[in-house]
């Protein structure tokens, strides 16, 4: 009997030890399994932040290239402008443009591409006669469409042109107001032009000058005149000599005073300012 009790006690104590070891091992395993998962999650969490910070920003996004050029990246990822390699083939004759050299180009892209080649002395320009190369370096669009014979602006037509131009500018301003395309500042000028006859031409003329001066340096360059010049030259044969004449001191820029005088508006009538400088 004693022997039996002794055997039973021994068995129980062995079982207890085994159970306790098993429990310990389970704890240990659970701990070892959970720990790597936690660490993995931590690694994943940590790796999320740098990815978010490294959002790819195209270095070309803020690089401005002239017409006929495209932005590319150097091996070091630095943006630079280079001549556009290929212009899409245009079949629509309305896409053609007439240059200031009175030559027709298939598209504005083709004209500016050639200007770029000549500016950077590309082989495609070097093949041309030297005086042509020099002319092409400063080539620009004179008007849209194929080059055609333009009637000469007579003295009588030119004398009447400032009035026609003022009238046209007022109509354009009105149209834009009707289409909700004017800012509240210029809309106020337009309303004033509608109701106050003395402001009618002045406001329209000032608004257009402000609108054309996209660089806000208070001078309209030849390039900035492009939006009114190019679409109208073929239709209004007086507009080119008229606009050329507005730059009375020939410095290639039209100041507000030159513009207003050109439109034959009395200088003392100028009171308004452009929206961007009105608070000065
Ligand atoms: Ca300007
Ligand atoms: Ca000038």
From TrEMBL:
PROSITE patterns recorded: EF_HAND_1, OSTEONECTIN_2
Main subcellular location: secreted
Cellular component, GO, one term: extracellular space
Localization of this protein: Secreted
Keywords from the named record: Calcium, Disulfide bond, Extracellular matrix, Glycoprotein, Secreted, Signal
Gene Ontology molecular function: any one: extracellular matrix binding
Sequence ranges assigned to domain Follistatin-like in this UniProt record: 59-82
Record's signal peptide: 1-22
PANTHER family, per database record: BM-40, SPARC OSTEONECTIN
Descriptive protein name: Follistatin-like domain-containing protein
Source lineage: Eukaryota, Metazoa, Ecdysozoa, Arthropoda, Hexapoda
